[in-house]
Amino acid sequence: MKKLFFIILMFLISYTIFSQENIAIIPKPVSVVMHDGNFVIDAKTSILYNTSNKEIANAIHFFTSSIKEISGIDLKKNQHQEKSINFQIKQIPNIGKEGYQLQITPTNITIAANSNAGIVYAIQSILQLLPGVRTNAILKLPCLTIEDYPRFEWRGMHLDVSRHFFSPEIVKEYINLMARYKMNVFHWHLVDDQGWRIEIKKYPKLTSVGAWRVDYTNLVWGSRPQAKPNDDATYGGYYTQDQIKEIVAYAAERNITIVPEIEMPGHVASAIAAYPELSCSQKFQLPLTGGNYTNISSNYCAGNDSVFTFLQNVLTEVMQLFPSKYIHVGGDEVDKTPWKNCVKCQNRIKQEGLKNEEELQSYFMKRIEKFIISKNRKMIGWDEILEGGLAPEATVMSWRGEAGGIEAAKQKHNVVMTPGTPCYFDHYQTGPEGEPLAIGGMNTLKTVYDYEPISKELNDENKKYVLGAQANLWTEFITTAEHVEYMVLPRMLALAEVLWSKKDAKDWIDFNRRLQPSFKYFDEKGFHYSKGNFNVEIKPTSINNKLSVTLTSEIPNAIIVYTTNGTEPNTLSNVYTNPIVINASLTLKAAVVVNNKVMSVKPAEQKFVIHKAIGKNVMYQYSISKYYMANGNNSLTDGVTGTFAVNKYWHGINEKDLIATIDLAETKSVTNISINCLQKYADWIFLPTSVQFEISTDGINYTTVGKDVNNISTSIKEPTIKTFSTTFNQANARYIRVSAYNLKECPKGHPGEGKPAWLFADEIIVN
Ligand code: ACM
Ligand code: ZN
Fold it and tell me: Which of 263, 298, 445, 495 is most buried, taking the most CB atoms under 10 A from its CB?
């Protein structure tokens, strides 16, 4: 009886220590079956493997050195011992090149895979089951069976080392973090306007000149002046070919392919600084100091054959260093103006029978692709390479949303999805209050976790061209290893799960549970990471003309507190349970509380106005941009006013006037009409030149009841919200027409001078 009790107790202990709920592997494996008991790694454990396989020897080295690092134990190799860890490469159906099987019993661990890649991933899973740092605790693994393989073949992370140079040690740390979470492509952005980072033996000036810029780190990226010819260029760095070889080998041991990006034909002010004859103007310049492009050549001349000779020589050295099947050639954001003004480029257009400069870019990319294919490699580029016609075998990296990727897949070209939302990890992940300064935007952990790389617009035939997805880390605002870590952690873990795990196995709550050991690992290793998105989403809904709001947080089981009297919410404020009905004008503030502490750095805040047009239909003469639809067609009458965040509640319209007609559905007595508009210089958003207000009882004959002219300068850079309004003698109206006249063009001196301006408007308030 006693013995049975003991057995049950042992079963319960082993079960409670290592139930499925305690397994915290990220990305979530395809299948985990738990068994009773444990395997203890100790001095009596031997590794068994085929020593003639060099690749597996590398993996074994990684495993044994990791075990030694955390425990001091030197595992024996191929010796007869009480317990063994057996590594086998053999034919296993249905798990692909990167899949693995892991079986843990009290006396044996068996790791089997079709290739070394699977072995590496089995090791990563084991390491996630063990402590992350040096410990004197027993190294105990639960008995289990795992079968696991990835959903996508391209699980990418990008790092821009041009805008800021990161040392080989930091790059290796980045690769190591990727490897822990089974990411397998490192896209290394080695070339851009602000620095050329790869040694090319044939063209030494690419690094002696192109890798160094005048140091303006004391100024914010976009406000740096361009260097003058005699300024000292002291800021930068580059990787020698030996360093690159070492990093490529380091990555390969972790099953990570490095895809180098040698940007062309634009974004190459650094190369032109080294060799001015590569540009159309052929003028001397220094690499860009930041985001200031005035009077700088950023493009190679597409009419000059020696440019192609140069690029072929560069690519030849690049391909000798990088065994990757894919070579990234950029192709994004080419300003075609220099080509329009260049005799050689125009001659090329004529000789080749091209229609325009878009086709000239296509000619450029096709010529480069031909060379890359001749070396048995494949060309990949940003989605602009679609414009003017895609090169015959090119792979497209879709960054301006998913449209380019969808189009390329429909044309039966391979695609990697990296849409700005949610794949740009240079955007904020919470706040932005309390976050380090970022370029803008917001991609929270949950938006990354919710990402689905296969667009609904792709049919079964076209889906197969989506190789996977990738997060991009541009570093205009990121200058330290700590900041790099912060931007990718923990978002990379969410993307890893999107790309590896089964689509239907995704579970936000369970992912958050499994994140906790990773947070502990980051803490112990000293990695910086975002501890969570504590923003509260205030979502207004209008049902039967009744305005109510829901409050949500991405933090599982978070408590949300709120106020409606303008005061800051605290732990004693109202706790949100059900949608809040708004029946008077007020300001709502809300915050997340965890462990009795207000977590949000700044509470979420939203102003509501109740007026006579709430919930009424709005018709537009010109369509609102699909990117700025806010809450939909009736955003101007939802009682919710726009904030300084451009993506919040504003209706945006590009170049055209905003002419909105509200149907009040019945005739009402009216005496005041107003509309709020936004100016945000940095985002090319300007106040209207004037706003005209009209009323009508029949929708045909309108009477003007006021006009408000803008008195705020277009050069004001601080975000500004202005209310345009009119008050008039009480009148009956069923229809209200508000015409806000667009500035049309960005003003003189603005970076977008002469280009279409945005007009942003929110609530039309009728009283
Ligand atoms: C890009 O973000 N310009 C590819
Ligand atoms: Zn030219």
Answer: 495
577-619 pLDDT tens trace: 999 999 899 999 999 999 999 998 899 999 999 999 988 999 9
Catalytic hit among 69, 242, 333, 753 = 333
Query: In this structure, which ligand is nearest to the CA of 426?
Result: 1
528 is catalytic: no
Question: Relative to the alpha carbon of 266, which ligand is closest?
Answer: 1
Q: Is 568 in the pocket of ligand 1 (CB under 6 A)?
A: no
Q: Which of 267, 413, 651, 750 is catalytic?
A: 267
Residue 343, classed as helix, strand or coil, is helix
In this predicted structure, the answer to whether residue 12 has a pLDDT above a threshold of 50 is: no
Domain ranges of the chain: 24-148, 154-525, 534-607, 609-767
Q: Are 186 and 256 in contact (CB under 8 A)?
A: yes
Instruction: Tell me, yes or no, if 267 is annotated catalytic.
Output: yes
- Report whether 15 contacts 7 (CB < 8 A): no
Tell me the best of 191, 264, 333 to mutate to test the pocket of ligand 1, counting ligand atoms within 8 Å of each CB and taking the most: 333
Q: How far is CA 721 from CA 284, 680, 685, 707, in A?
A: 43, 9, 11, 18
Mean of pLDDT values over 342-354:
98
Residue among 332, 397, 425, 476 whose CB has most ligand 1 atoms within 8 A, to mutate: 332
Nearest protein Cα to ligand 1, atom 3: 332
pLDDT per residue as tens digits for the range 219-244? 989 888 889 888 999 999 999 999 99
Could you identify the atom of ligand 1 that is nearest to the CA of residue 397?
4
Which residues does 340 contact at the CB level (< 8 Å), separation at least 6? 346, 357
∠ CA 638-644-650, nearest 5°, is 35
Structure tokens belonging to residue 50: 């085929």
Domain 609-767 class in CATH: mainly beta
399 CB under 6 A from ligand 1? Answer: yes
Task: Indicate the CATH number for domain 154-525.
Answer: 3.20.20.80
Mean pLDDT of the chain: 93
Overall fold of domain 534-607: Immunoglobulin-like (2.60.40)
pLDDT recorded at residue 206: 98
- DSSP-derived secondary structure letter, 365: H
Q: CA 726 to CA 423: how far, in whole Å? A: 44
Instruction: Give residue for tokens 């009795």.
Output: 596
User: Is any ligand 1 atom within 6 A of the Cβ of residue 382?
Assistant: yes
Q: pLDDT digits over 279-324, tens only? A: 999 999 999 999 877 788 999 999 999 999 999 999 999 999 999 9
Q: What topology is assigned to 24-148 in CATH?
A: Chitobiase; domain 2 (3.30.379)
CB distance 724 to ligand 1 below 6 Å: no
What token pair was written down for 420? 């700005």
At 11 the pLDDT is 42
* Amino acid at position 39, single letter: F
Hey, which residues does 22 pair with through a beta bridge?
Answer: none
* Minimal-distance CA residue to ligand 1 atom 2: 399
Distance 536 CA to ligand 1 centre (A): 30
Strands (E), 5-71: 31-41, 45-48
β-strand pairing of 395-398 with 378-382:
parallel
CA angle 111, 116, 119 (to 5 degrees): 25
| CB-based contact 24:55 (threshold 8 Å) | no
Q: Among this protein's residues, is 663 annotated catalytic?
A: no
Around ion ligand 2, which residues have CB less than 5 A away?
280, 301, 303, 342, 344-345
* pLDDT range class, residue 7, cuts 50, 70, 90: very low
For the chain, what is the largest distance between any 2 Cα atoms, rounded to a whole number of angstroms?
Answer: 99
